Structure formats: structure tokens, C-alpha cells
Amino acid sequence: MKKFKERLIDYIYSRNGMDGLTQFVVYLALVILVVSAVFDVKVLYFSGIGLVIYMYFRFFSPADGRRARENAVFMKGLNWLVLQFFKAYNRAREERIYKFTRCPNCGFKAKIRRGRGLQKIHCEKCRIYYEMKA
User: Fold this and answer.
1) Other beta carbons within 10 Å of 26
2) What angle separates helix 66-95 from helix 20-39, to the nearest 10 degrees?
3) Which domain covers residue 9, as residue numbers?
4) What mean pLDDT is reported for the chain?
5) 47-58: string of b/e by CB count within 10 Å (b at 16+)?
């Protein structure tokens, strides 16, 4: 029995395990399976089952680097997507307080406070002054 336990521990230790992409696949499969159960759509059901099979494939595949590279590409794309979301969120929040303008000479972006009338703006890139109404 001890030999079986040691072999099982060695087998699990040499596997890929649960990384970010596998977690995403699990959650996506769960959502798809719930939606397929609610709306009784067979295509979604089989898609969810396929994702569960893919999750097990990733989970139990040998840790040889290919799954790690796939996970690295996924995490890079996910981080980019999250960054774009927060940039858009912060920009929309700042739109209430600031007006975003561009320098007429070089096109450099600047922001000026709203509700202050005609303002004199100094471009940080080309060092000119221009006026703009907020």
C-alpha cells in the first residue's frame, strides 16, 4: 500500500495542476452548464462538457512547459484586458471633473478642470501655451 501511495504522490507532483487558465475554464464551464440547464440548450451543454474535459486534460497533463506557456499567454491577455477596463473606468470617472484636450501644435493630451471658463494651458511636450474653454 505504501508503494502505491508514493507512486500516486509522484504522479500528482509531476502534473500541471490548477493554474489561471484552468481556473478560467472551470468557471466558464460552470456558467455554460448552468445556462444550458436553465434554457435547455444542448449545444451549450456539450460545449460545457467539452470544457470540463479540457480542464481535466490541462490539470493532469505533465508539467513540461507547454501548459505553462499557454497559461502565461492567457494571463498576459487577461492582465491587458483588466488594464483596459480600469483605464476606461477611470477615464469615464474623470470625464465629470476634467475636459481632455489635445495640443494644437503637437497633439499631446492634456486635461483641464471643468467649470473654470477660458484657461491657459502649457503643453509639456512642445512647451507652447494655448487657450481653451473648459
Assistant:
1) 16
2) 70
3) 2-90
4) 89
5) bbeebbeebeeb
